[in-house]
Amino acid sequence: MKKLVFDTKNNLYFPFFEWIILFLFLCILIYYIVYGRKYLSYQLNKNLNNHKQSTSIKIKKDYIFAKLFIPIFLLFGLLISSFMTYSRTVSYLELKDILQNKTYKVIEGMVQNFQQMPYSGHQNESFEVNSIRFEYSDYTGNNYFFKNTKSHGGPITGEGQKVKIYYLEQVPIKKICIPILPKCIEFYISKNKIIKLWVETKKP
User: Fold this and answer.
1) Which of the residues 22, 54, 67, 134 has an alpha carbon 20 to 30 A from that of 90?
2) Buried (b) or exposed (e) across 48-68, using 16+ Cβ within 10 A?
3) pLDDT one digit per residue (tens) for the chain, 204 residues
4) Which helix (H) or strand (E) holds 20?
C-alpha cells in the first residue's frame, strides 16, 4: 500500500510576506527621499552650531557617510527584495498553472543509487527511479518542492523502496526578467523537482 508523504499543494501559497517586505522598503525609501535628507541637513546644522570648530570636520564626515550609506542600503534592499518577490511570485504562478493543467511528469518504481545526506548537510541527498535522478537538501531549495532527507526524518529510506513521484522535469535554463535591470538573469537548473510523493508502506 502506498502512502502520500508529500504534496506541494499543502505548501503552495501566494508570497504575501515577500510583497510586504518589498512594500516596506519602497515606503522607507520614499520617506527618506521626501523627509530624510532634510532631517539629516537639519541635524548637521544643529550639531555644527552646538560644537566647536575642531569637531565640525568629524560631524561633516558622519553626515556624508550617512547621506551616502542610507540610500545605498535602501536601494540594495529594494533590489534584493524585488528579485525575491518576483522570483517567488513567478514560481507560485507557474506551479499553480502546472498543477491545474497537469503538465508534470509521473514515474513509479524502486529507489536506486540512494545517497544519504549527512545531518549537518555538506552534500545533497539523491536517488534514481528508472534512471531519473532526484536531488534535494533540507538546507536549500524552495519549500514548494520535496526536500526532506532521511537524516531529518524523511520518507525516502534507501535502496529498493517502492515510490510513485509526480515531478517537474529539469530544464537546461531559466530566465528571470526584472523591469529595472537592462537584461534578464539566466539560471541553470540541474534538478528534477518532486511535487508529489508516495512511498510503499510495510504491511502490519
Assistant:
1) 134
2) eeeeeeeeeeebeeebeeeee
3) 789 999 998 988 899 999 999 999 899 888 888 877 777 676 666 665 665 554 555 556 666 666 778 888 888 989 999 998 998 898 889 889 999 999 999 999 999 999 999 888 778 999 999 999 999 999 887 788 999 999 999 999 999 999 999 999 876 556 666 676 666 665 555 578 999 999 987 655
4) helix 16-31
> What whole-number distance in Å separates Cα of residue 146 and Cα of residue 124?
13
Q: Which residue type, as a one-letter code, is found at position 57? A: I
Out of 38, 68, 97, a domain closes at 97
Same domain, 110 and 188: yes
The answer to whether the pTM exceeds 0.85 is no
Statement to judge: residues 82 and 164 lie in one domain: no
Q: How many domains does the chain have?
A: 2
Residue with cell 510495510: 202
| HEC profile of 52-120 | CHHHHHHHHHHHHHHHHHHHHHHHHHHHHHHHHHHHHHHHHHHHHHHHHHCCCEEEEEECEEEECCCCC
